Records
---
Amino acid sequence: MHPISRRQLIKTTLVGGIGLTTLSCMTTNQVPHRTWTRYIAAYDTESPACLAACRKIVEVHKRMEMPATFFVLGSVLDANPAEFRKILDDPLFEIASHTWSHRMLRNNVFCGEAPSMEDRRIEIAKSKETIERVFERPCLGLRPGCGFDNALRGEPEVLKMIHEAGYRYVSSLLWGPDYSLPALLEDPFDYSADGFPGLWELPGHGWHENLLKNNNQWGPKRLVLWPPPFPEAIPD
Ligand SMILES: [Zn+2]
C-alpha cells in the first residue's frame, strides 16, 4: 500500500472527507469505472484540551503514515496558533474548519437552534480565514458543530454562504434518521439539488461512542431507532 497524503487524496478525489468519513472514489491510477469506499479518520478539535489529544493522535498517524483531517474550531486555533501549527502542519493532515465557535448552522434537536444568518456567516467565514492565516494553505472543508440528520439539504442560504466562502465540501451528515445513532454509512453527494453542484457533502460516522460512553456528558438520550435500520442485526 502506498502512503497517500491527505491533500493528495483530496486533489485526486475532488474533495476530502471524516469520526470517519467515507469516500466512494476512483483514482487515476486504478481500473477505470471501478469505485470503492475509503474511510478517512477525522478529529473535531474544539477545546484547549484537544491540544494534548492532538499530540498523541498525530504521533500515531505519523507512525502509520495514515492521513487524517482535523476539523479545528477557529476560536480555539486563534488562542494558540503557534502550538497548533507546530503539531498539525504536515502534508499527511488536512486542516479544515469546525466553525468559529461551534454555534449551529441549522437547528439541531440536541444542540439547539441556529443563530441569525449573520452570526452563521461569521461561523463559516471567520474560521476559514483563521485556518488559512495560521497554516498558510487553503481550507477546503467545513464540519458544522454537532452536524445534522439531513445534512444541509434545504438550507440554500447557508449553502450559499459556504460556497461564497470558498469551501469545497461540507461534512454535516453526522446522524441517522430522526437524529438517531449510529449515523448510517451514506455515500458522499453534492448539493446540486439545492443549486450548488460544486459543493460536496462527505458524511461522517463512528462518533457515537461519545454519546454511548457519555463522554460529552449529555446524559441519557433517545438515540436508537426501532425498527432498526440494520435488520440483519436482528436474530431470526
Ligand atoms: Zn464539535
---
Amino acid sequence: MSSSLQPDEFALLVDRTGRHFLTKIRPTGQFQCHHGVLQYTDMVGKQEGARLETSLGKPLWIFRPRLQDYLMKMPRSSTIIYPKDIGVLLIWADIFPGARVLEAGAGSGALSLALLRAVGPDGDLVTCDIREDMMQRARRNVTNLMGPMPNWSLCLCDVYHGLPDGPFDRIVLDLPEPGLVARHAAQALVPGGILCSFVPNVPQVQQTVDAYRETQAFVEIETYEAQVRPWIFRGPSARPTHSSVGHTGFLTFARRGEA
Ligand SMILES: C[S@@+](CC[C@H](N)C(=O)[O-])C[C@H]1O[C@@H](n2cnc3c(N)ncnc32)[C@H](O)[C@@H]1O
C-alpha cells in the first residue's frame, strides 16, 4: 500500500531511539508525547516514512503500524500470543489464503488479527470463547484495525464440550487444556488438516501431546518453543540486548491422519 495517510487510520510515530508511539489520526486535534505536540492535520496526506517535527523541534517518523506494532500496543484483557510465536504458528500450521479456520479462545484478539490476515478475504475464521467480555474485547481490537470483517464469526461456547460445525482446514487453540478438545478437533478437521495449540507450561504441553496421541487420529505431533534474540549494534558494542521477551509458551502441531 503506497497511498498517503488518512484520518481514522492508525499511525506509528518513531523517534530517533526507535521508541514507538501508536495513535489514530483524527480529523482535528493533536498528538502529544514527551517530544512535544504534533497536529493530526500535519499527519494527513503524508507518505509513510515522512519526517515530522514536533512543537519542541524533535523529529518523529510516521508509518502505518506493522501488525506486531499494533498487537503489542492494543488494549488487552488476556495474555496475547506474542508476534514471535504467531510467526511460527502461521508457517508451521500452514495457514493459507482461503483456509477455513477455527480458533479458541478469542482473548484480546491478537491471534484473530493474524489469522484473518493470513486467510484473506476468501478464507473464513470462526473464533470461540467461553466469555462474552473476551469476545467483545477481541471484536473491538480487530475492527479498530481492520474494520468490519464479514468472513469472521464469533461464537460464545465452551469448546471442551464441542465445536461449531466444521469441517475446518485448521484448528488453533490458545486455552488452558487443549487436550480436552482433541477428540472434537479430530472430528471437525478435514483429512490432512492441522491442529495447533499454544500453552505456557510443561505439564500442559505434556497433557496436550498425550491427549493428541490417545485419539489415534493425528500424526506428525511436534512441539516447538520459539526464541527470538534481538541484538544491538551501537558504536563498538555488538551484543544481544540485556532484555528481550523470555519464555512465552509451547506450540504443538498435529496433522489429521487415518488411525
Ligand atoms: C490466553 S486467552 C487467548 C488469547 C488470544 N489468543 C490472543 O492472542 O489475544 C485464552 C482465552 O480462552 C478462553 N477460554 C478458556 N477456556 C475456554 C473454553 N473451554 N472454551 C472456549 N474458550 C475458552 C478464555 O476465556 C480466554 O479468553
---
Amino acid sequence: MAEREFKGFGGLLLSADMRGSDEDPSVLLLHGGGQTRHVWQETADALVKAGRHVISLDLRGHGRSARSEDARYEFDACVEDLRAVLAQLASRPVVVGAGLGGWIALTAIGEDGGHLASGLVLADAPPEIDLRTAGALAASIRSAPAQTENVDPVFGDVIDVEKSSERISLAASGLKVPVLFVRGALSSFGNRDAANRFVEKVATAEFAEIEDAGHLAVFDRSDAFSAVLLDFLERRVPRVMPDYKQGSDARTLRDALGCFATGVTVVTTMSAEGEPVGLTANSFTSVSLDPPLLLVCIAKSSSSLAALEASQRFAVNVLHIGQQPVSNTFAMPGEDRFSQTPWQEGQYGSPLISGALANFECIKFDLHDGGDHVILIGKVERAKYEPRRDPLLYFKGKYRRLHFA
Ligand SMILES: Cc1cc2nc3c(=O)[nH]c(=O)nc-3n(C[C@H](O)[C@H](O)[C@H](O)COP(=O)(O)O)c2cc1C
C-alpha cells in the first residue's frame, strides 16, 4: 500500500491510500462525514482481489488530509477537492461515496457531464434530499465528528449539505455515467419510492437494497455491499483488455509486445574508423544451431545501424543483473558509451562488454528488411558465458530480476 498526496481546493493537501496495480481500472472510495478512509478496509480488500486499483481518499479535515486553517469546510469546497483529485489521476475511476462522500461525488460527476469519472456508486446517499433526510443527515454529520479525534471538530459546524439539496438534485439529472444507488433497507436516509423515481429519471442508474441493514450499510454489512458493488462493476464498468487492430494506436501494440519478457543485450561492432559502436537491444533471438545463427532487430533510425551494416562482424553481449547502468548508457543518445563501460576487443575484432553474462562474437550472415527495423542475422564464431550470474530482464517496459519462489 502506498500513500499519495493530492492538491485539493485552494492547494490544501489531501491524503489517500493507493492499493493494487495502477494498470488495473481504478475505484476511488470517499468516506462519509466524520469518518476516515479506514472504514473502507474490507471493501478495498475485496476490490483489489477482484483486480481493481483502489484509491481511498480522506476528505479535508479528516484523517491524514490537512485541516483547513480558515475552516473552509463548506460542501462546495469538498466538491472542488474531488474535482481536483480526479483531474490529477491518470485514468477515470468509478467513484464510490458513502453518505456525505456520495453527495460530493454525485455533484462533482453530475455537473461535469462524465469527463472525470467512469461510474458512480452512492452508498446511502439518496440523490433526493427531502426534509426528513435533511434532518437525519444534519444530525448524523454534526454528531459524527465528535466520535473521532481524526476529524477537525469544526467540520460538523460548517458543512452545509442541506443547503445544497437543490444543487444535488440538479446534478443528479445530469448524470450520464453508470450509477448504482445502494441503501440499507432499514436506513432513515431516503426511501424506496424516491430511489425508484431516481432510477426512472436517470437512464444510466440502477438501485439495490441491502436487507437487514440500516444507515451506511456499506460498513455494517460490508460483505453484502462488496458483492453488490463488484457485480455492478463487472456488468457496467468491466475490466477491458486493451485491444490493438491494424492501424489503431501503436502504444497498445507496444504494450502487447512488452508482455513478452526478455533479457537485455548490447549489440556492438567496430566502425570502419576503428571506433567501438553499440546499442542496447532486447530483440535478440536464437535462430539455428546448425549452422549456429542468431538475430537482432536494429531500428532504421539507430545511429549505430550504418556501422553494423558496413562491418562484417558484430557481437551480442547479454547483460547480467548488475549491468542495468550499462543498458541505460547504451540506450541513451549522446552518451560516450564506451568510455563509461569496461570493454575489450574480442578475438574476432568486435568490442566485448566486460563481465557480461554471455558474449556472442558473430560474422554477418544476412541482413533483411524488417519494416522500420533491419533484421541482422549473425553466424556465431565464438560464445562464452558466465554460469553463476543472474540475467537482467525486461518486461512491460521495466527492468526486472529473476525471482525463485
Ligand atoms: C531494454 C531496451 C531494449 C531495446 N531494444 C532495442 C532493439 O531491439 N532494437 C533497437 O533498435 N533499439 C532498441 N532499444 C533502443 C535503443 O537502445 C536506443 O534507441 C538507442 O539510443 C539507440 O542508439 P543509437 O541510435 O546510437 O544506435 C532498446 C532500448 C532498451 C532500453
---
Amino acid sequence: MLLLTKRKFNYLKSTMMRNDLSERELTPFDIIWIKNITNSEYGSAYMNVDSEFVLHFPNRHCGNILKPQKGEIILLYQNINGHKVFTHLVTPVKDKIEEEGDRANFRYGRKVRVIAHTPIDDLIFVSDSLWSRVNFQGISQGNACEISHISKLGIFDDLLRDIWVRFTPFFKKDFSDSIRLVENISKEIDLNDPDFGVTEGKERLITHIARERNKEIVYKKKQQALKQGLLKCSVCEFSFIDSFGAEFIECHHVKPISESGETTTKLEDLELVCSNCHRMLHRKFEGHFLSICELKNRIIKYKLLQNKCKNEDR
Ligand SMILES: [Zn+2]
Ligand SMILES: [Zn+2]
C-alpha cells in the first residue's frame, strides 16, 4: 500500500504546480518583458501557432535569450499592414536555448507557451490603447526588453492593466481559471500605502514585487532552505513550521529596488523572511530602506531598550 505523508503530499503538489503554469495565478504584474516580432518578409509572425512554439531572437541578441525567467510573461507586438499590434502573451517553458541552423539571422530561440493570442481578424491596435503614449524607439529590434525600462514613470501599472484587459478575451482555455481580474489586484498591492517605498518609482517596485513572487525561483529557494533545515526568517528567525506547522515563508529581493532593473534573479539575491520583517524591509526608516542586517540590529536595539524600560519600572 502506498502511504502518502502530509509532507510528501505537499511536496508533490508544489512540484506539480511548478511544472504546470496553469495551476498558478497570473496577474498583469507578471508581464515583465516586451519584444518586437515583426516579420516584414511574411507580413506577420507566429499567427498560426499551437500552445507552444520557438520564439526566435536575432543572432546579435542571443545573449539575452535566457533573461526572461519561467513564469515571467513576454508581451509580443509586431507591425501588420503598417499597424503596430499586440498579438501574444507568452512565457518561457525551459531554461534552454533552441538552435535552428537553417535560419540565417534568427538562428536561436526559446520555447515559449502561449498564454493569450489574438486572431488575425481581431487585433489589438497599439494606437487604440494607452500604449500609444509609449516610445517604442527604446525597444531594440527583436530583443526582449524590460517594460520598466521603456515606460514613463507614473503610468507603468496602468499600461500593464490596460494590456491585461485587452487580452482578457483571448486567454487560452487552460489558463482562464488562473487569470486574476484586474479589479482584484489593486487591492492586494496598495501602491499608495506609505509603508511601501513608492518614492523609489512605482514601476521598479512592481518589477521588484513580481520578481519576489516568481513561483519558480521562490520554490527553488524554499527547497534549498528546507534541505538545510533552515526555513526561518533571516531577520528574526521566526519559523512558520514551528508556530503554524506550515512550510510558509516569504522571499525578499535584497538588491535595492533602484538597482534591480537589469538583473535577473539569482537564488542568492533572495532572502527568506517572515511577513512582518518583509513589510518592514519595504518601509523607509529615516528616509532609507534597511538591509537585512540593519533590520536585525534594529530589533536587537529595541529589545534592549524595552528590557531597560522594564528594569527601570521595577
Ligand atoms: Zn522576521
Ligand atoms: Zn521584498
